[in-house]
From TrEMBL:
Region (Disordered): 1-23
Native source species: Emiliania huxleyi (strain CCMP1516)
Domain of life: Eukaryota
Protein name, per record: B box-type domain-containing protein
Sequence ranges of Polar residues compositional bias: 1-11
InterPro entries recorded: RPM1_Interactor
């Protein structure tokens, strides 16, 4: 059985990263990843949040997720922009995008807590 270090090691193929599993059949695009790290579609970083997609950043593979919403791209309401900056342009190297991610997570947490209070505050604890 491989150690966790072996499971987390990557090796470089001639065209893309492959997860080292022994049979080398699990490619990086088969694992969930933020859009900016997609191995199938090039990403063009913009430092500041922009309302419209930049240079094809809206293109995705089935395993891309929204960095801000922390959800699949298909579940992101602001992927192509509109009334908010286009989440397809988000990347973790930008301080502004990272702050938007933190704010969105806080908002989701507040919504979950409010829903729990509304249902009578039933929560489950592990002992």
């Amino acid at each position: 059985m491989p150690t966790s270090a072996e499971q987390q090691s990557f090796k470089r193929s001639n065209r893309r990263d492959q997860w080292a599993t022994g049979d080398d059949s699990l490619l990086a695009e088969h694992l969930p990843h933020q859009r900016a790290l997609c191995p199938l579609h090039p990403f063009h970083a913009a430092e500041r949040p922009i309302a419209a997609p930049v240079d094809g950043n809206e293109a995705t593979c089935p395993n891309c997720y929204c960095l801000i919403c922390d959800a699949r791209v298909s579940e992101c309401r602001h992927w192509r922009g509109g009334d908010a900056p286009a989440h397809c342009n988000a990347h973790s190297n930008s301080v502004l995008w990272r702050q938007k991610r933190v704010n969105a997570k806080r908002q989701r947490t507040r919504a979950v807590r409010a829903a729990q209070r509304k249902r009578g505050g039933v929560t489950f604890s592990v002992r």
